[in-house]
Amino acid sequence: MSLQQQIPFPWQKPLWDKLTSQFNENKLAHAYLIFGSQGIGKELFAYEFSRYVMCSTPSNLAACGTCENCKYGFDAETGSGHPDIVVLAIEEGSRDIKIDQVRSLSDFLVKTSHAGRAKIAIIIDAHRMNSATANALLKTLEEPTTNTYLLLSTHLPGSLPATIRSRCHKISMATPDQQTAVDWLAQHVAEQENTS
Q1: Strands 148-154 and 31-35
Q2: Which end of the chain is more exposed for a tag (fewer CB within 10 A), N or C?
Q3: pLDDT tens across 126-170, in order?
Q4: Which residues 6+ apart lie within 8 Å of 31 measured at CB?
């Protein structure tokens, strides 16, 4: 079982329950800033939540895995898969997320949804936007189109401009306590050994 298939991790469950509940009650915000320590699964959480939003027939607060939208899949390594989900990350050889990437993202979000559900943008390491790039994103945050969602992840939320932070609902992802981490790792390592 891949890491993505195990989302939500035990320490993410309260946040998962909150977001899925908001979505099911049509109360999901337009933009979320997911922040917390490096390596705790923020990006995997965003990917899997995007799959949940796109799923036509979710069950038990998870994407079904079998509907047309789920069949597109979603590769967390490459960000490829569903045509209504786009991932912004630092391009190879670059230090920052570029303004052209954000402009392309804005163009993507105003187009009609391919599957007729929603459009989702995931911005990895959002703190790597320079001021010009952040300013380009502001218009999208200030004038959201219907059924579009932005999920920004970072381990340095204070490095983002206040104008970006103030337009996002904040999700602080807790670092698991030592016992939770040890238990989860022991189970995960055992599963990996059994599949090898």
Answers
A1: parallel
A2: C
A3: 999 999 999 999 989 998 888 999 999 999 999 999 999 999 999
A4: 141, 144, 149, 150, 151, 152, 167, 168, 169
User: Which residues lie closer than 8 Å to 18 by C-beta, 6 or more apart?
Assistant: none
Query: Which amino acid is it at 3?
Result: L
**pTM for the whole thing?**
0.90
Residue 171 above 70 pLDDT?
Answer: yes
Compute and round to an integer the Cα radius of gyration of the chain: 17
Please calculate the CA angle 26-31-37 and round it to the nearest 5 degrees.
Answer: 120
> Mapping DSSP to helix (H, G, I), strand (E, B) and coil, where does residue 57 land?
coil
DSSP 83-138: TTEEEE-PPTT-SSB-HHHHHHHHHHHHSPPSSSS-EEEEETTGGGB-HHHHHHHH
Distance of CA 194 to the CA centre of its chain: 30
User: In a 10 Å sphere around its CB, with 0-12 CB exposed, 13-18 middle and 19+ buried, how is residue 36 labelled?
Assistant: buried
Question: What is the spatial distance between Cα 57 and Cα 65, in angstroms, rounded to a whole number?
Answer: 9
Distance CA 108, CA 60 (A): 30
d(CA 30, CA 99): 21
Distance CA 53, CA 69 (A): 10
- What is the phi/psi pair of residue 149, to 5°? -135, 140
